[in-house]
Design a protein that fits this description.
Elements: H1 3-13, E1 35-42, E2 51-61, E3 77-90, E4 107-121, E5 124-135, H2 141-152, E6 167-178, E7 181-182, E8 186-197, E9 200-212, E10 220-236, H3 237-240, E11 261-272, E12 275-284, E13 294-304
Antiparallel strand pairs: 1-2, 1-13, 2-3, 3-4, 4-5, 5-6, 6-8, 7-8, 8-9, 9-10, 10-11, 11-12, 12-13
Helix pairs in contact: 1-2
């Protein structure tokens, strides 16, 4: 595949968000639901271009995917899916050709995830995801960002030659949720989660509030989703470099990182017939001790069939 076509596919069809950040809960609670969709995240919508700078995500949900051996299994399964994700991370100044010591390293990931959700009974749900792919130049983040800047007429980034080195990725994510409140138009869910792998290793807890009728099969749907999480990072390869390949030209140490990171998300959604659209705002506290918080926005579209 030619590189311009590769960049166009990722730019057009892609979520974000890394493993420790939120993934969109799709509008489904039935095992026979099928849907395809995409999410595009970028901080330029909030007039910045740094840290978590860009994310694109294409996903497909189909009950037949529950037959994959490393997912939860078909019994009591609510949904199973596959996701292609590209994420880009940059320092505070992308227009200098020198390493910015103490700042976030350049990094990018390109991954495929297989995810499933299981009803454990008594209001408990388990989300499980396996994530495989690449960290580093093989993820093509440098080329993708340069293409986006070229398409928009912006000055190209200058420091990608110092990005985190190539490394294959394998990560497991588990998220246990409890439906504390469940009515026809309200859900309140506390949750706890763990991510383990050579991309992200962390633990955390959070609380989600959802209002609306977006989980019903009505012709018109609306919803508001508010969620907050506290994350204890143990290892982050996009900041600290890979566990396998230790030859990154620049990376941070564990002592440079904040011991606890907070993430808040607000998402508004609107659906008509098989089509659902959403707009998301994210706020992340400082991942690096002496650097500031970060915000970004996202848009998403889902088609059910």
């Amino acid at each position: 595949m030619k590189r311009p076509l590769f960049a166009l596919l990722l730019f057009t069809f892609g979520f974000t968000a890394q493993a420790q950040f939120f993934k969109t809960r799709y509008r489904t609670n039935k095992a026979d639901d099928r849907m395809i969709g995409f999410q595009f995240d970028n901080d330029v919508m909030l007039t910045t271009d740094q840290f978590y700078s860009n994310g694109v995500d294409l996903y497909f949900i189909n009950p037949e995917l529950s037959k994959l051996p490393f997912l939860i299994g078909k019994k009591h399964n609510i949904q199973s899916g596959i996701r292609l994700t590209s994420n880009i991370f940059t320092p505070t100044d992308i227009y200098t050709s020198e390493i910015l010591r103490g700042d976030r390293p350049y990094a990018s990931t390109l991954t495929v995830s297989f995810f499933g959700e299981r009803d454990l009974g008594n209001g408990f749900f388990l989300d499980k995801s396996w994530r495989f792919g690449w960290l580093g130049a093989n993820a093509q983040g440098d080329f993708l960002q340069e293409e986006i800047h070229d398409w928009t007429g912006s000055t190209p980034p200058m420091g990608w030659k110092y990005q985190i080195a190539n490394e294959p990725i394998a990560n497991l994510s588990l998220n246990l949720r409890k439906e504390l409140v469940k009515t026809s138009h309200l859900r309140i869910e506390p949750q706890t989660f763990v991510n383990v792998g050579n991309l992200y290793t962390n633990i955390g807890t959070g609380l989600a509030l959802r209002v609306g009728n977006f989980e019903t099969k009505t012709p018109f749907r609306y919803g508001l989703h508010l969620e907050g999480k506290g994350i204890i990072p143990i290892y982050d390869a996009t900041l600290q470099g890979g566990l396998i390949n230790g030859r990154s030209p620049y990376h941070l140490s564990k002592s440079d990182l904040s011991p606890v990171v907070g993430h808040l998300q607000a998402r508004a959604s609107l659906g008509v017939g098989p089509l659902d659209c959403s707009f998301t705002l994210n706020w992340l506290s400082s991942e690096i001790r002496h650097l500031g918080k970060h915000s970004w926005a996202g848009i998403g579209v889902t088609y059910s069939f």
